[in-house]
Design a protein that fits this description.
CATH architecture of the largest domain: 3-Layer(aba) Sandwich
Strand content: 15-25%
Number of domains: 2
Number of strands: 14
Oligomer: single chain
Radius of gyration: 27 Å
Order of helices and strands: HEHEHEHEEHEHEHEHEHEHHHEEEE
Helix content: 40-55%
Structural class: alpha/beta
CATH class of the largest domain: Alpha Beta
Shape: elongated
Distance between the termini: 103 Å
CATH topology of the largest domain: Rossmann fold
Length: 385
Amino acid sequence: MVKLLGAFSGVQKMKNKILYISIIGGVLIFTFLLFAFPQNRQPIKIGLSVSLTGAYPDLGREIRDGTLLAVEMINEEGKVKGKPIQLIIKDNKSNIKEAINNYEELIKEGVTAVIGPATSTVAKNLLPLINEKKILTIAPTPTSTELAGLDDYMIRLRPTNKEDALELAKYVTKKLKPKRIVVIYDVLNPTYTIDFAQNFMKYSGKEIKFSLIPFKEGKSYIRDLSKKVLSYSPDAVLLITEVYSTALIAQNLRILKPNVKILSTPWSKFERLIENGGKRIEGLLNLETFDEDYKRELYQKFKRRFIDRFGYEPELGAILGFESVMLIKQAVERGATKETMKDVIIKKGKFQGLQGEININPFGDRVIKPFVVKVEKGKWEKVRE
């Protein structure tokens, strides 16, 4: 009996020893993997730098909301190759110096890619730093032709001013047949506004006479500005201004001359333009690249979730913010790293978007055709050719 107990005790000690060795071995292996492959436990960091305060906050806020929803949905639905996305948000306040500081901070945080800025002027001044750091940056809304056709580290998701201005000029020349157009352009975003004006004049009929008037944001002198504009007896007025300024100027013009034709640009193409402009902006022309009534499930799911999450309907900035994250996600799924993100996107060239394919050309510019829309009975409607 004593021998039997001794044998049992020996076997038990051996089992305990094996168990102890196994636990120690497991801990050592786990520790090795943890330190040898730290990326397995790290989130994919994406930076966002747009204007959330300052001169032009509305577009930046919509881009932010679109990116936030994309990150939330991706993390809910399985992450990216098992890794969550972490969004790091910065406010550049429509200020070039602030945007540069934001970018350098995001680089230090180890982001894989950056989304933003929202305006062409900030994008132009930030581009040298982007190319120096070689971190892929998706600019959802900057459209200056200066930014297109470059071998750089910036991906752009809207057509350039050339494509937008061409479509608007073709329609205006053919349908409205104006003899004189006054162009009002915002001086605080000249990379966009002057570029759009130059392209619009270039593609308009040679018989049209143009007058250009600079505009600096402010309500106090808009009535006097409107009187000055109408002193030229224009058949149409092109407003290259942000949404609230566009609404105010358009209202004042129509009070003084109810039948004057008013043209605007994608910078102001929001529901807020209609809400603030009211009945006086009926017939106002603008440009668009996406269908607000698109019926396929991916877009409808995004739209439902966006409204539930933020309480308003998504527009240009929100859609492009969401698609910016989609683009990064699909690139990572194809093996892209921080260092190879640009090459993967350029080489692949085609990605899933909310309304069909996102086509990116070899220079990082999205290939998509804009179309003319106008305000009809308080809604944006695509014009009939």
